[in-house]
């Protein structure tokens, strides 16, 4: 019996990367997990299979969190499969590296549409459907704390998520729902592998562990925040960057 054996979790964007690491960890801790994906159905099936192999239940649901109707569908699927959720992890996100001089509206709409609108409307669904004493974790980015060139849109979108986290913690606290944010540094995922190696290597070298973080590193922090020992932690933004300073 895991510490989350009676819990139901929704993890958005969990077909790969940090989202997959989180979904699999919550499954190992005993939670029933709704795995959300946008386009990578095979990846979502792999995540669900790993969760089931650990002895927990898992279902998958397709949805683009940029669209309000898909956030509604996500929660409806959870209610149908497992009942009311206890845990929401807003992980679905998209990165973008563009110089300011090359900023375009299409990329802006993609980045803010998923990272901000998607998070906001999933928080709305959590306000409507999450059980009292539930847990919400939003996934941020250290780029909003340690600005890098060419990341204005991405960093700004994740800074907005931090504000949403603090507001949601204050608003949902009356129902004893904890809302926190985990801020990964550069983590070894398919998304971060698009960053040039000459930018990734110094970050790894700056950590005392001389490596980039892994999805499992971030999942461990999330697992703490959704577990029973984090009762007294809410409205916080927790940096998980291995001491790299990035």
Structure in words:
43% of the residues lie in helices and 14% in strands. By secondary structure, it is α/β, with parallel strands linked by helices. It has one domain (8-238): NAD(P)-binding Rossmann-like Domain (Rossmann fold, 3-Layer(aba) Sandwich), CATH 3.40.50.720. A 7-stranded parallel sheet has the order 3-2-1-4-5-6-7, with helices on both faces. β4, α4 and β5 form a beta-alpha-beta unit. The longest helix is centred in the middle third of the chain and has 25 residues, at 105-129. The mean pLDDT is 95.
Label this structure with key terms:
7 helices; seven-stranded parallel beta sheet; Rossmann fold; 246 residues; globular; alpha/beta
Tell me the CATH superfamily.
NAD(P)-binding Rossmann-like Domain
Relative strand content:
5-15%
CATH architecture: 3-Layer(aba) Sandwich
- What is the CATH topology descriptor? Rossmann fold
By DSSP, the count of extended strands is 7
Biggest sheet descriptor: 7 strands, parallel
CATH class category label? Alpha Beta
Number of helices: 7
Structural class: alpha/beta
Categorize the overall geometry.
Answer: globular
Which strand order does the major sheet show?
3-2-1-4-5-6-7
Number of domains: 1
